[in-house]
Specification:
2 copies of one chain form a homodimer. The first copy, chain A, is an alpha+beta fold. Chain A is 34% helix and 22% strand. The first copy, chain A, contains 11 helices and 18 strands. A 6-stranded mixed beta sheet of chain A has the order 4-3-2-1-5-6, with helices on both faces. In chain A, strands 7, 8, 9, 10 and 18 form a 5-stranded mixed beta sheet that branches. In chain A, β5, α6 and β6 form a beta-alpha-beta unit. The longest helix of chain A has 22 residues. The first copy, chain A, starts with 13 loop residues before the first helix and ends with a strand. The N terminus of chain A is likely disordered.
């Protein structure tokens, strides 16, 4: 509780942010968007370093195709906004609004003034993908001539490739999650509820250096067949599997690791049954084979296909009910998605999960997940916990 | 860490949820909406009890003006969705979609089939206020004939009044936050960073019974003049104020309390200066006077005006840079807002913060905040920590 946050951590400097902003403006112009309208969230943090909590008062970075970006903020957050490096460097201007002002009219005015030809009404804007409907609909009203599209259409190619500092942050987050997972997997489990173990996971994620815990799935026994199981009052018993899928964020960047345990209570007769061992062996092979395929130029969907082929050939095709992975960075889930239909070629610096799973409804399931960076010559696996089945006393 | 969650807590049963759903359908019809489209978040929880994490795969409750509501979920969450009481009671049907399906076309189909006159194309839908832009824009494309408006326009009058179980949850949350605040205020503070104290606050919020900590503002010295200060590396010293503004959620319902301390280090010479005492006295009066005005029929903006008048008369009007309060329930901030221009009359069961503040830029500031329920005969104040200035050793 008294450990200092951020000590020795890589961070993203004002120069890098200014470069990202100038690149975003260039891409906006190229894509024919009069402005990029960026609400609180990962895109705002990526472009400006500013990461306030998401609240009902509009905070919006307006990046016009021409001219200086503005950060529209509620008056009571102006002091915080003025302290961020890209504002101190005057790359971005702070525009505060008062409680009784109309912030949407304010944004519309900035878009109109920053459009390539200030004389004509704005024809196209891009909004950040997770901007709330309440803001989207009000902005559509305030900018009636503009076609609205998603910021990811403009910025996807930028955020999808991580620079070395970003990879360092992803690695630090992965290692912190690895430690938390090892501690929980080798601690007491039997007789505790999933919810209780889940709370322990969250505490350990933070104790190991995360800024916050984002999720802590603890799915025991039949619940292990539900990939997004919400931990609840079920008590863990000897003789069953547990899927632990945990993650948080560190310096803004996500961790996300899944391992499957089998809890014996120290009784050999309560070890994994042959069906489970067979299932797990197939899953282990599929996860390893998919990981080996990672290199620049390979289509994202190919990684999914490799895992799926092995699982399907073993007869579990219908039990692998989700894609193989998702990108990770400032968001838990982001581009690139490793899913059928996504032909995006992998590029060096892309970071994503590889996490096939097999789920036998009503019985049990298993999943193995690592975070992997696409390196110039092949996969760089950030998580280091063994991918063998963890058969523990519990 | 081993405390059981939810023991003895009031909860919202399936019968109540079914009633809310039927009421929502009735209001949709009355308001001329073909369907309500409810994404993950407070509205989904309010109407169905379902509270999955917000992710990039569409989860959406479709409440058509006619016919049974459907819960559209990604296949990998179908098992979790089928376990919720309103689905078990067959009030709501689960409609799973696979990774390569188009969930927006699926929703559009459900809207079309559930419209008052299945023959004509949908003309109006309401989307939940915090639905992400990526979902809003895709739904606008999938439902090109429909006018989009906000769900709060339809449902505001429902969620804004809390039933007795909801008030019990708000009270339990408030008391848990009170305990966490008292513990931190009377513990060691001097020599620690704001970020470190903030982490302690979060731990204590959870230890006292919250499901999760939502925020933990620790604003010391000059930072106390920034209402939404982000706790960072500043070290707390003797002879300065600290604003603690903390909250979490318990059974889905929020807590939110602010108290201002003055840290002396045990040295009388480092007590609050006369200016601060004067400022605090005005603030204390304003907060108490505003609270006393709470009763059914009083316009929301009147509560703001009462606090503002007292602060302005004392010469601090320009230093009270935010509204007096916000509603609270399944969201940290929701209707009713106590702000100039909001003439909504208070009703019994409304719950909101009353939190005036005075901020002297570059010097220091103070804020006092309670959660208050409008009772039949006057205010019911849920927080019980003294509102006097907390002059502590630190």
């Amino acid at each position: 509780m008294t450990q200092a946050a951020g000590a020795g951590r890589p961070s993203i400097g004002a120069g890098r942010l200014a470069h990202r902003l100038s690149r975003a403006r260039h891409l906006a112009l190229e894509a024919g968007r009069d402005a990029l309208l960026v609400g609180v969230g990962a895109d705002l943090r990526y472009l400006s370093g500013y990461a306030p909590p998401p609240l009902e008062r509009l905070t919006m970075l307006v990046v016009p195709a021409h001219g200086r970006p503005s950060l529209v903020v509620p008056r009571l957050e102006a002091m915080a906004a003025r302290a961020i490096p890209v504002v101190e460097a005057e790359t971005v201007a702070v525009v505060p609004w008062d409680e009784t002002d109309d912030p949407f009219a304010l944004v519309a005015g900035l878009v109109e003034r920053g459009a390539p030809d200030g004389a004509r009404p704005p024809s196209a804007v891009a909004v950040s993908d997770r901007l709330w409907a309440t803001f989207v609909l009000h902005l559509q009203e305030a900018l009636p001539t503009a076609r609205f599209s998603l910021l990811s259409d403009v910025l996807r190619g930028e955020r999808i490739v991580k620079d070395p500092d970003e990879v360092d942050l992803l690695r630090a987050a992965a290692h912190a999650a690895d430690r938390a997972l090892e501690q929980v997997a080798h601690g007491r489990l039997i007789g505790r509820t999933e919810a209780d173990v889940s709370r322990e996971v969250r505490d350990r994620l933070v104790a190991e250096g995360h800024d916050e815990a984002s999720f802590a799935i603890v799915a025991s026994g039949p619940n292990s067949a539900s990939p997004h199981h919400e931990p609840a009052d079920r008590v863990i018993r000897a003789g069953e599997p547990i899927v632990l899928d945990i993650g948080g964020s560190l310096g803004g960047y996500g961790s996300d690791i899944t391992r499957t345990l089998w809890v014996t209570g120290g009784e050999p007769s309560r070890g994994p049954d042959p069906d489970f061992l067979a299932l797990y062996g197939v899953l282990r092979d599929a996860q390893a084979a998919a990981t080996r395929e990672v290199r620049p130029g390979v289509p994202a969907e190919h990684i999914d296909a490799v895992a799926r082929e092995i699982i399907t050939a073993a007869g579990y095709g219908g039990a692998f009910i989700h894609r193989t992975g998702h990108g990770i960075g400032l968001e838990e889930h982001e581009d690139p998605y490793l899913v059928a239909g996504n032909a995006t070629p992998l590029r060096a610096g892309m970071a994503f999960s590889i996490e096939p799973g097999i789920y036998l409804d009503g019985r049990y399931g298993a999943r193995i997940e690592d975070i992997v960076v696409c390196g110039e010559d092949g996969p760089i696996v950030l998580d280091a916990v063994t991918r063998d089945l963890l058969v523990v006393h519990g």
